[in-house]
Amino acid sequence: MNNSKTDKLILLFNKVLLSVIVMIVVFPLLYVLLASFLEPNALISKGFKINTSDWTFEGYKRILTDGTIVKGFMNSILYSTGFTIVTVLVCILAGYTLSTEGLVGRKIIMVFFLITMFFNGGLIPTYLVVRDLGMLNTIWSIIVPNAINVWFIILARTYFKSIPKELKEAARIDGASEFKIFLKIVFPLSKPIIFVLALYAFIGQWNAYFDAMIYLEDRDLYPLQLVLRSILIQNEVQPGMISDQLARAELQKISEMIKYSSIVIASLPLIVMYPFFQKYFEKGVMVGSLK
Asked: What are phi and psi of 38, to 5 degrees?
């Protein structure tokens, strides 16, 4: 296929534009990654240069020897995994139920769900409910309040509608119950949407810190993002990471290196997960959007 001059100009413009966007996104990430390995003095004096002679693992050593970040990392894994399991399970079951044509009042139920996407009780009533249920300062205060996501339910419902009805009808003729139809037929065909929702849920919870800041009082229960927030925003580097004998200028340099290293460690799980979820992610999102 021969492109006209106009088409070639448009394609060239798109390539240049996309290259610029990629550089804008990639350069800060690359800078943070290399800055976490560079010796602070070299970073200040020489700037952004790839020189292995100036590399050091001091920032990572100080982080890994400090119990606060390690404990925060483990807490985040626990919260994100638990939240993902509960959210995906609830939203998949709700989406399948609402996709069933024989369900009486499903349109009214969807209207009630949609209303909650735009209006909610607010922070104070939610806090009072969490408190009265006895979930304050527990893992359940992180998992339960946001476990039901209406957007996830809509995605799951749309995906389930794309599954041929003939499969379910054949199973009903053979005497299968609705639960058995879901477990034996629908669920095995739903890997794309399950992985999409799991990825969305895990990333959302992994990056969240506000609920933990509101509901958790024990610092041993803090997730990594809340610990990282104190390092990056409030500039509270833990005493165990930096010796009290360090000079003020040296302390500031080490603090910057610890900040960069903390960002890299906080991003690792998402970077590792995405390649495995990518093929399901693309398929699941396209099916939901086309329907």
From this structure: -75, 140
